[in-house]
């Protein structure tokens, strides 16, 4: 959605998507998928491979295996991983070397791409609205509906749909006018990021129309049918909670409420950092999360103007696991410092990925065996990744400043090839 150098905020996965590997074949040459190129290499070509602290990365793999063990070629690997102890780093490294093949990723002629960071925010809030906590964290509105439309159908000017469930519509093939219980729509009325096929909208008479924008929702449109999960103190932190996609809210009694992505109003994310740069309000180098927060503090009267640059709005749901990391797109808890969000068109979700980059605002190497457990709307391309730093203020400082270049190696079990 956004070009790499224009992504000025860390973005979290908004929708789950899995990519199954190809059927195993024998291949010693490079494999291609779109602009991506995959070339098998030896572990000795991974920077600092022998220095890896493998215990935590094994625990992350064991989490991924809750899903991976059902995929072709992964069952024996996951069974063996379950029997290993994270305390024996040498044995863990030997396991990866014996069971996996590293595939170096290239995007066209390039072997480096943008590595950003994200984290799990902590907000102060309450179950009840008060002068201290006036800002609502909304669940998905009842009137927010989804409709899957193919690329071919999106080129048509009139489609007809009918209800297929409480929150879903389905197309009625061959019709151009609505009958009883049906709704007309023009697909070109809906925002399109060039990739998604799901339209988000609402019923207006006998028409299916786009859902409300962020600015309209801020004025109270649509959310009269949405449950308020909590009320929070700070609207800026609430905006960044939406950017991250999940977080924790500390309530009045000291307990924590964990919330995660439930749905979106269907509009592509627009970078408020990019807008500030284009308006001459800050430089590209200052357009970090912290830089944007500082700008808002200096320009409080323009806060809503800035937020409404991004028409996308995220609705949340409460999560039932108060401990551990937030759930990623793979459906397992993320591991602080060992999970990344990737583009699943090029990196199958759950796969180990060796990352070679640097720490934020630094040339200090950051070489680590990560795990592709999440996705994000701005994470596009074979060499694009979002590094999960964990939970709280310190993690947010790292995540907000991370805009590094890095290289990736996809690790797949022997006999499993990269995606076509």
TrEMBL record:
Its EC number is 4.2.2.n1. CDD domains: mlta_B (cd14668), mltA_like_LT_A (cd14485). Residues 122-317 form the Lytic transglycosylase MltA domain. It is an enzyme of class 4 (lyase). PROSITE patterns: PROKAR_LIPOPROTEIN. InterPro entries: 3D_dom, MltA, MltA_B, RlpA-like_sf. Gene3D superfamilies: Barwin-like endoglucanases, RlpA-like domain, transglycosylase MltA. The keyword Thylakoid does not apply. It holds the Pfam family 3D. Keywords: Cell wall biogenesis/degradation, Lyase, Signal. Residues 1-22 form the signal peptide. It catalyses: Exolytic cleavage of the (1->4)-beta-glycosidic linkage between N-acetylmuramic acid (MurNAc) and N-acetylglucosamine (GlcNAc) residues in peptidoglycan, from either the reducing or the non-reducing ends of the peptidoglycan chains, with concomitant formation of a 1,6-anhydrobond in the MurNAc residue. This is peptidoglycan lytic exotransglycosylase.
């Amino acid at each position: 959605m956004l070009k790499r150098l224009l992504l000025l905020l860390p973005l979290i996965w908004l929708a789950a998507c899995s990519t199954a590997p190809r059927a195993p074949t024998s291949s010693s040459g490079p494999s291609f998928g779109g602009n991506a190129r995959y070339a098998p290499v030896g572990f000795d070509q991974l920077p600092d491979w022998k220095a890896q602290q493998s215990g935590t990365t094994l625990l992350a793999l064991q989490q991924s295996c809750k899903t991976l063990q059902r995929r072709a070629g992964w069952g024996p690997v996951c069974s063996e991983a379950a029997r290993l102890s994270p305390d024996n780093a040498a044995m863990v490294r030997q396991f990866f070397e014996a069971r996996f093949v590293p595939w170096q990723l290239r995007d066209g002629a390039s072997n480096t791409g943008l590595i950003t960071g994200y984290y799990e925010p902590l907000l102060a809030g309450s179950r009840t609205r008060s002068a201290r906590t006036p800002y609502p964290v909304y669940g998905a509105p009842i009137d927010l509906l989804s409709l899957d439309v193919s690329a071919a159908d999106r080129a048509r000017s009139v489609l007809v749909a009918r209800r297929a469930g409480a929150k879903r519509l389905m197309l009625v093939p061959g019709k151009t006018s609505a009958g009883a219980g049906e709704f007309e729509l023009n697909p070109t009325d809906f925002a399109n990021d060039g990739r998604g096929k799901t339209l988000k909208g609402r019923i207006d008479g006998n028409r299916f129309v786009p859902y409300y924008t962020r600015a309209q929702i801020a004025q109270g449109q649509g959310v009269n049918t949405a449950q308020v999960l909590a009320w929070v103190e700070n609207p800026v932190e609430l905006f960044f909670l939406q950017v991250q996609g999940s977080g924790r809210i500390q309530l009045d009694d000291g307990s924590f409420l964990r919330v995660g992505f439930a749905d979106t109003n269907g509009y592509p994310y627009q970078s408020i950092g990019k807008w500030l740069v284009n308006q001459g309000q800050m430089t590209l180098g200052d357009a970090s999360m912290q830089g944007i927060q500082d700008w808002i503090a200096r320009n409080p009267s323009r806060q809503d103007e800035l937020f409404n640059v991004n028409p996308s709005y995220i609705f949340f749901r409460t999560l039932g696991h108060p401990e551990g990391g937030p759930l990623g797109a793979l459906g397992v808890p993320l591991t602080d410092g060992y999970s990344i969000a990737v583009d699943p068109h090029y990196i199958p979700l759950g796969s180990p990925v060796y990352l070679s980059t640097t720490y934020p605002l630094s040339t200090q190497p950051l070489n680590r065996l990560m795990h592709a457990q999440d996705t994000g709307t701005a994470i596009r391309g074979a060499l694009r990744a979002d590094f999960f730093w964990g939970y709280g203020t310190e993690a947010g400082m790292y995540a907000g400043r991370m805009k590094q270049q890095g290289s990736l190696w996809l690790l797949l079990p022997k006999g499993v090839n990269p995606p076509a």
